[in-house]
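ok, trying the design again with the full structure, not the truncated one.
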């Protein structure tokens, strides 16, 4: 029996998703765990895998569409099965949510021929079409009405990239909506190129970039953090010469012991810093805590969120139980997580439930900065670059390396003295870094 597939919840905070791409087409056989589509959520691009087996009879929303949770996206069933009732929203056997099901079948009516196996006598599409506009077949593509372009952000983005005037494109999607396939083979309109030229004194129109799911989530969470979490900041400078010497020695040893033809492992400043923070958090557990309305939770685990910049924004994969891991293991895990973060392949659970965050902008040449706390964590450490500068040693001024760090604290959880104690312990570890290897 045919079944309507609805958009599932693919991340804990997901409320809607954008179908980035379908990996199956109508008529394909589907097995359990087959990849149906990729869905961009507020966290990352997630794989939407099938929980059922059968034949993909109908795709209800094209790639690029933004879909609410629970909204029907496809129909699966036996080969050749009549799905006109489900597609038309009158049969509802799959128990789609009423509000979503009501909207989607209307869209489906606009493109009945795509199914290929619709019965000759099937009236539902035509019947619905008559209710909206006289006797014309609902499948006919319609141009945009009243100058309003009906297209998803993804399609608009495609149009901008190709210099296309979407207002002149006849959409073949539901209710004349423009879908990606409508743009195939189109050439930029002359007006689009001419529009780039502006009259003297006229301000050029800004480039409009629709918000991605991730950007929306970043905006929401960081606004919430700055508006509801009372931040204060503590900064220190650390003598980075010992840490630099240790890192160079470790990497030299790794290179010397690597097998022939094997790329030697490496340890970065950040890897040593992550481990040092874990040790400091064990020694000052009040910084490894979070605020709740009824109590302060002091975590018994050290799971550090490491901020990773990606083209769409920022994600924070979590390295678990850092205090129990060796530096080399941490280095390998951070690199693996960062690689998958940039490929948008992290799972939601890999970005959730950190207890402390580190944000390092040293590789961008930033000396120091203050980071916004990643709620519900109680603190985040912002790390600048290791810089060379004159330093005073004894009675002499000599060249040296310095590293600036700023701890952003949730004052509801971390008081000034507690934050300062944490930084004191952290500095002591970084300036005597063999303790990092022993911790």
């Amino acid at each position: 029996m045919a079944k309507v597939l609805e958009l599932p919840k693919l991340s804990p905070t997901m409320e809607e998703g954008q179908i980035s791409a379908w990996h199956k087409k109508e008529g394909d056989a589907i097995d359990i765990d087959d990849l149906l589509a990729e869905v961009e959520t507020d966290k990352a691009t997630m794989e939407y895998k099938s929980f059922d087996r059968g034949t993909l009879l109908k795709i209800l929303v094209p790639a690029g569409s933004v879909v609410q949770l629970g909204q029907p996206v496809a129909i699966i069933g036996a080969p050749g099965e009549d799905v006109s009732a489900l597609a038309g929203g009158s049969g509802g056997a799959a128990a789609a949510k009423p509000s979503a099901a009501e909207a989607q079948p209307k869209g489906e009516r606009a493109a009945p021929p795509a199914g290929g196996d619709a019965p000759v006598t099937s009236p539902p599409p035509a019947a619905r079409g008559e209710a909206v506009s006289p006797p014309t077949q609902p499948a006919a593509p319609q141009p945009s009405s009243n100058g309003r372009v009906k297209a998803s952000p993804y399609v608009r983005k495609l149009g901008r990239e190709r210099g296309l005037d979407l207002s002149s494109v006849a959409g073949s999607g539901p209710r004349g909506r423009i879908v990606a396939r409508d743009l195939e083979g189109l050439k930029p309109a002359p007006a689009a190129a001419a529009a780039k030229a502006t009259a003297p004194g006229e301000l050029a129109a800004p480039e409009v970039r629709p918000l991605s799911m991730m950007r929306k989530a970043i905006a929401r969470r960081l606004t919430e953090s700055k508006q509801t979490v009372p931040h204060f900041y503590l900064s220190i400078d650390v003598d980075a010469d010992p840490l630099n010497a240790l890192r160079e020695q470790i990497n030299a040893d790794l290179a010397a012991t690597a097998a022939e033809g094997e790329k030697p492992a490496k340890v970065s400043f950040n890897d040593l810093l992550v481990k040092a923070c874990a040790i400091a958090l064990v020694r000052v557990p009040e910084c490894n805590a979070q605020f709740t309305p009824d109590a302060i939770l002091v975590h018994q685990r050290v799971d550090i969120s490491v901020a990773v910049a990606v083209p769409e924004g920022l994600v924070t994969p979590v390295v678990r139980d850092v205090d129990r891991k060796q530096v080399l293991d941490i280095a390998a895990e951070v690199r693996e997580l960062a690689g998958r973060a940039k490929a948008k392949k992290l799972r939601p659970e890999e970005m959730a439930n950190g207890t402390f965050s580190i944000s390092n902008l040293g590789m961008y040449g930033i000396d120091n900065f203050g980071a916004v706390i990643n709620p519900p964590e109680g603190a985040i450490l912002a790390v600048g670059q290791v810089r060379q500068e004159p330093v005073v040693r004894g009675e002499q001024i000599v060249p040296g390396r310095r590293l600036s760090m700023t701890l952003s604290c949730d004052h509801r959880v971390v008081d000034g003295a507690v934050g300062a104690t944490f930084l004191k312990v952290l500095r002591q570890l970084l300036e005597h870094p063999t303790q990092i290897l022993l911790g």
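Keeping the full-length input from now on. The chain is about 30% helix and 25% strand.
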